[in-house]
Specification:
With 328 residues, the chain is mostly helical. Helix content is 64%, strand content 0%.
Length: 328
């Protein structure tokens, strides 16, 4: 006889492990209805790495994306070494011809000698030509960015022309107002001459600064190029100081001979000119060598890029794009 106070049987008893239509529960759970088991939902496993055209190609070939060192071949540069050697030759020729003309000729023959004038003009032409080609090579290797000025050869040529004309203008002005400068009461001549000297100094400084600034763009040492100007200036100041301390008076004690005049020219002109020639040789050589090293590195990286590209495996059909069927 059944107990009327007993709990009525469940209409839907929990299904056990053997039931194929529901979640499988342990046997102990079916006998204890107070235990509630939440339904389990199967979640798909997420892949660790995304699968796309590139990753599919990597899985097939075992290689990653090809990253070239250079995307363009090395550019063609203008040859400047012959201008550099021609500049050295003409500078020393100008120095030697000036001293020799003063020794073998009469006083004042330097200003009328065709050899002296021609050697100086040739040196100036070679210096301007080298600067123009050097600026072209810098702009070709390292193009100017948004906030950088381009390396313009014509601007370098104009600056050199102004630098050559500035000392000549000061010398011409001194010939006209030199007597008035000796008069302490004539202040107008001093007021006019001092700004002219300062302006000439700035004009001579500008081409050296321009070359040094653009040499730094290709990695050339800035101090070496800028010393091209300052070392020459110190030599000129030293030569003028020697002359002002009484060298000319000492040479004129027994009358000026050809040897005395040659010594004076060698000190006042020859010493700064020699320093300028040596500084020019060093600055231009360093400039060209850095440009050449930069170009050789570009060439090496381009050749390495071609070798890496040739070593890449041929992509299989898995990495090939799917083309639509062509309608007949």
């Amino acid at each position: 006889m059944s107990d009327p106070l007993a709990d009525p049987p469940d209409d839907d008893p929990p299904k056990r492990d053997s039931d194929p239509d529901g979640p499988r529960l342990p046997a102990s759970v079916g006998s204890n209805p107070s235990i509630v088991v939440p339904p389990s939902h199967a979640e798909p496993a997420e892949p660790d790495t995304p699968v796309g055209p590139d990753s599919a190609h990597d899985l097939v070939t075992g290689h990653g994306r090809f990253s070239p060192l250079r995307s363009d071949p090395p550019p063609l540069l203008l040859t400047t070494w012959w201008l550099r050697y021609a500049l050295f030759t003409t500078l020393f020729a100008a120095l030697g011809s000036t001293v020799w003309t003063e020794y073998t000729g009469e006083a004042g023959d330097i200003g009328t000698s065709v050899v002296v004038i021609g050697s100086h003009v040739s040196a100036a032409v070679f210096l301007v030509a080298w600067s123009v080609l050097a600026m072209h090579n810098v702009e070709t290797l390292v193009p100017a960015r948004r906030y950088q000025s381009k390396s313009r050869g014509w601007l370098a040529a104009v600056l050199w022309m102004l630098a050559f004309a500035a000392p000549a203008g000061v010398a011409l002005m001194y010939d006209r107002v030199g007597d008035r400068l000796a008069d302490s009461e004539d202040r107008l001549a001093v007021v006019a001459f001092v700004p002219a000297v300062f302006t000439a100094f700035v004009l001579v400084w500008l081409p050296f600064r321009y070359c040094a600034r653009h040499a730094a763009r290709v990695g050339a040492p800035h101090r070496t190029v800028i010393a091209w100007f300052w070392v020459t200036l110190l030599a000129l100041v030293g030569a003028l100081a020697i002359d002002a301390l009484g060298m000319q008076v000492l040479l004129e004690q027994d009358g000026l001979t050809a040897a005395d005049r040659t010594i004076g020219v060698a000190v006042v002109y020859g010493l700064p000119m020699l320093v300028f020639a040596l500084a020019t040789a060093r600055a231009t050589t360093v400039f060209d060598e850095v440009v050449d090293l930069r170009w050789r590195r570009w060439k090496s990286e381009w050749e390495q890029t071609l070798r890496d590209l040739a070593a890449q495996p041929t992509p299989g059909p898995e990495a090939s794009p799917t083309l639509p069927a062509r309608e007949s």
